[in-house]
Amino acid sequence: MKRLKAIGLAVMLIGAAAPAFAQLPGEPKAPPMYDPTGDARHRFERWSADARVREAQRVLQERGYYRGPLDGLMTPETRRAVWNFQMAQGFRLSGRLEPQTMDALGLTSTGATAKEAPAHPESEGSALPGPFAPPRSIPDRGNSEAP
Length: 147
Known about the structure:
- It contains five helices and no strands.
- By secondary structure, it is mainly alpha-helical.
- The protein has a domain at 48-114: Orthogonal Bundle (Muramoyl-pentapeptide Carboxypeptidase, domain 1), CATH 1.10.101.
- The termini are far apart.
- Mean pLDDT is 76; it is low at 117-136.
């Protein structure tokens, strides 16, 4: 009899615990533990070649700071070359291709050399936030008459 009571109690406990793991109607599903598509997209974006980096590598190679291949990848060797260039120029050391570093290299933020750059960069919109975006002129809508 005691054995039967123990089995019944175990069945009741197992049956009572099952609804705790169930999803209730209208409740959002838990996010997946691993997103293979997002992971592949992140790896592709992080490790894909960039024309801006390739041009910076070319200029750094011409100036004697970089000795690696012109592959457009921000490898540790490329970061070291940018760091050494920033140190020689007296810039803040970051190892990144910031606007100040790109200007000193004679490149624009898109990677084109200064002579290939458009005459008025303000005319082109930028999707980059913060200090990387060129200032945009906002027309004065309060006065519709010409001066």
